[in-house]
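Hi all, long-time lurker, first post. I run a small reading group and we've been trying to get comfortable going from sequence to structure in the token notation. Rather than ask abstract questions, I figured I'd post a concrete chain and ask someone more experienced to write out its structure so we can walk through it together at our next meeting. Sequence below, copied exactly:
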Amino acid sequence: MTTFRRRKLRSSKTLSSNVTPLRKSDWVAHDNSEPSRPRNRGIYLLPNAFTTANLFCGFFAIVQSMNQRFEMAAIAIFFALVMDGMDGRVARMTNTQSAFGEQYDSLTDMVSFGVAPALIAYEWVLKDLGKWGWLAAFIYCAGAALRLARFNTNIGIVDKRFFQGLPSPAAASLIAGFVWLAVDNKLQVQELALPWVMFVLTIYAGITMVSNALFYSGKALDVRYRAPFGVMILVILGFVLISSDPPVALFGLFVAYALSGYVFWLWQKIFLRQKKASDMLSDN
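-- Answer (accepted) --
Happy to help. Here is the structure in token form:
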């Protein structure tokens, strides 16, 4: 009887020695009483502050267009353009890029450069065209959404020196510049023709945003390094030109930029055709 008890005790010791004790982290992980909380991550304040200012300008433009104050709405779009350019520059200069900032900037651009210009154009004159007016505004809005989605998926793939399609800030500035010119009575267009001119311009901006035309991005220009003296002269001339007559200067500038992609495309076609012809002649 005693021998049996000793064997039983030894077997229990052997079993206990082979069992690995549970650690505290093991039973805490399987405890379903409290769900695991995501780790709290901070955000970079400086670039996201500029993005928030961009969002405010876009929202302000929407409110002003609903109040029939179209000149203020157009000016707010240009302020949003400045804020949009600042947040990316500041993030790169201070090395504060983040995935949160990219998504926040994209959503903000959809409001400021997608929804706001479409609503301004519709509330101004496009609603006089009936269904054609809101269809044009929707084409622009959808083009901006597709443009931003394609840009987000092509980061790191396309050449950083060029944008594929007209950037949404430039398209928004094209719409806002035309509104500003017309409201300020500096555009020689008959009142009856204004809705149709706005219709064509809105359709053009919406389609060009999703086109494959290449537009110069300006990202290759790094302000942290030295530049030729002539660049400073051009900057001063630009300030003088814009300050002399902001509506005319800004609208003319963005019209030229909105056409530059197709001009560059035609130049490439002609240059490549001439190069191919010269190569064929040299081979013969």
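A couple of things your group might point at:
The radius of gyration is 30 Å.
Confidence is low (pLDDT under 50) at residues 1-19, 24-31.
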